[in-house]
Structure formats: structure tokens, C-alpha cells
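pasting for the record
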Amino acid sequence: TSPHLIINDPVGFNMQFAQRGLWGRGLYFATNCTYSHKYKYVVQENVFSMFVATVFVGYVKEMDEDRNITTPPSRPNSTDRYHSVQGRRCGEMIHIIYENCMAYPSYLIKYTNPN
């Protein structure tokens, strides 16, 4: 999906393009760009683009993979929910948010991969 379509939302990332992943339908962010490279947008041969985003994770619940998650679980002894979910995949920390207002695309970078 074109990066310009993904950010075509007045609040941040467009949730319409969020797909159901290993932790349900949400917006997925990795702390390591080498992991995110697997999901890059191909601009042209050996030229790619990727977002650098500011993500509010708030109260985080680390969870095992569950494709049925639609919102973070409730916090213990509270009527409030966690703000986001995190999990590990291939040794990398992945953060998942379920509301687009919790992430903002700070930069759209273009890069080449020397490999």
C-alpha cells in the first residue's frame, strides 16, 4: 500500500489499512528498523520507503500471539484498559496499538539496501 494512502487520515495512520496480524487488527510498530524492513514499501528497484513514527504506548501489556485481539485487555483491579500490547517476534519487540490517534507518522524516509 502506498505510504501516502496510509497517512491520509487527519489523526495519523489510516486504520482502514490495518490488517489482522499476530496480535489482532491493529497498527504494528517495531523498535528495530531491520525488522520493519520486511514490511517496506518498494518505490523502485532497490529503493524503499518506511515510516519513522512517534508512538504513544502508555500502559503496555506484554502478550503472547492472539489473532483475535481487537483492543488491549483490561488492567488488573481497574475498569481501564491497557493502551497497547507488545510482543516478541524473531527476537524483536513489537508494539501494537488499536487506535490511530496513538501514533503519528513523523518521517517518511527513502533508502536503499546495499545487500
